[in-house]
Description:
Elements: H1 15-27, H2 35-48, E1 52-56, H3 59-69, E2 77-81, H4 87-94, E3 98-102, H5 116-119, E4 124-127, H6 139-149, E5 152-156, E6 164-165, E7 168-169, E8 176-180, E9 193-197, H7 200-210, H8 233-269, E10 273-274, E11 282-283, E12 290-293, H9 300-309, E13 315-316, H10 334-342, E14 343-345, H11 354-369
Parallel strand pairs: 2-3, 2-4, 4-5, 5-8
Antiparallel strand pairs: 1-9, 6-7, 6-11, 8-9, 10-12, 12-14, 13-14
Amino acid sequence: MSEPRIPIAAPVLGEEELANVIEAVRSGWISSKGAFIGEFEREFAAFCGARHGVAVANGTVALHIALLAAGVGPGDEVLVPSLTFVATANAVRYCGAMPVFVDSTRDTWQMDASALEARVTPRTRAILPVHLYGHPCDMDPILQFAARRGLAVVEDAAEAHGAQYRGRRVGGLGTTGCFSFYGNKLITTGEGGICVTDDGALAERLRLLRDHGMDPKRTYWHDTVGYNYRMTNLQAAVGVAQVKKLGAFIEKKRQIARWYAEALAPLERADRLRLHPEAPWARSVFWMYSVLLADSEASVDQVRNRLGDRGVDSRPFFHPIHTLPPYATGERLPVAEELSARGLNLPSGVGLEQAQVKRVARALAEALER
Ligand SMILES: *Cc1c(COP(=O)(O)O)cnc(C)c1O
């Protein structure tokens, strides 16, 4: 028990981030003007294969203004997977619209495109797919469905920086892609987010909403009620250094996933758990390497306690949002509910070593023993 705790995630920050922050402080540009913001927006958008980037205060407000810019408003409905972080649905509510929850697929754990038809109504305005735990959604059927119905597609890519769907990076596939740079995401700016899009007019609209709705050509003229959702130059200074490392971080995440798959293979062969899937058309970034415990196994809570006793941090899957008090409707979405009841996130920080992965696998084997 004297071995150090293995955290669920920890940011990897270096001298480059520090040097940029020092430069920003020395320059006096620490608020939301300054050269790092534009540089970060250009670098990150280019990484996604998108033309424009609009950096904001966090991933949740990125979703909020992306939905507003897509025309989502009071009385509208937005199709959202139930198995996601609550911010996805909250952003819909901030617009005065209602999230309509869609079940997940058993094979990828992502939004089930074949379930959209049954959930669409004349009030549906947009689809908000989430690339959960670093794996892309099956986007072609979602995009085709949206095109047929004239719906916007806002991607919640907060957990999937650099993940690829049939060779294309997520975030650049829909109308707008939204990312988070919270401390446990693939790259971080402390708090932070961005919207990326190919549509120049949409990018202008996002900039307006981010900055109090102020006309960029007419100081203190406000055509619309906007927000203060800006990112600071200090955050962007960290981001510029982080985005240069994103390619290497993704490779490391995939390496960690291979280490887990190897170390946990005996447990999978014994039907004690199922490994984190990756579809043939997907290149996952394995934001959180996860497993599903077998039906008959001890509860996720028990296993987490036993892992904790062995110095291993873990997280349960999200509760399906349709079961949370602000959203509870009494409906059943069986796959999302089952995944949530059996899913467990394992330590996945970019700094993780193979010896630590083996330690986690040993601890998990012991935790499932009793
Ligand atoms: C982290 C996250 C968000 C919110 O991002 P913040 O930067 O924390 O506001 C939204 N959606 C998903 C799926 C997330 O994981």
